[in-house]
User: Which sequence fits this backbone?
């Protein structure tokens, strides 16, 4: 089981999210036969952040809505990424924090052997802070899970 250097799915999701011009990376995604989507969400409710990412992944065909294992894998990748942006507290509005986030979801096989199966990476980047404009700071989270 060897992870291909050029197939690092978490790195790919993070770069896709952070790049202003995504044409080149989207082309690489197609060449790898991976799927990806981008989106935005702003909320004081972590449930709304999770829901926005899940809905985007389902609508863009990243996961199949009727397969529990795919939804379950996505949920765990989202939770891991949220832990990163909230510093492990998983709370937003209840502790008077708000977020303005962009997210990327990437699905593919990062290993040399096809039998390793597919993985999901969720990258989240944006701002978090008190619900007062101008008092927030940057944050970044990444979650990776096998399907």
Assistant:
């Amino acid at each position: 089981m060897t992870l291909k250097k050029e197939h690092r799915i978490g790195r790919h999701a993070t770069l896709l999210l952070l790049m202003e011009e995504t044409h080149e990376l989207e082309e690489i995604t197609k060449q790898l036969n991976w799927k990806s989507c981008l989106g935005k969400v702003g909320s004081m409710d972590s449930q709304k952040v999770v829901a926005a990412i899940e809905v985007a992944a389902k609508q863009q065909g990243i996961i199949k809505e009727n397969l529990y294992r795919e939804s379950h894998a996505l949920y765990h990748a989202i939770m891991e990424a949220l832990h990163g942006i909230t510093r492990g507290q998983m709370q937003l509005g209840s502790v008077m924090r708000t977020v303005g986030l962009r997210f990327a979801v990437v699905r593919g096989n990062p290993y040399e052997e096809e039998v390793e199966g597919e993985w999901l990476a969720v990258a989240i980047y944006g701002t978090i802070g008190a619900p007062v404009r101008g008092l927030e700071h940057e944050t970044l989270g990444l979650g990776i899970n096998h399907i």
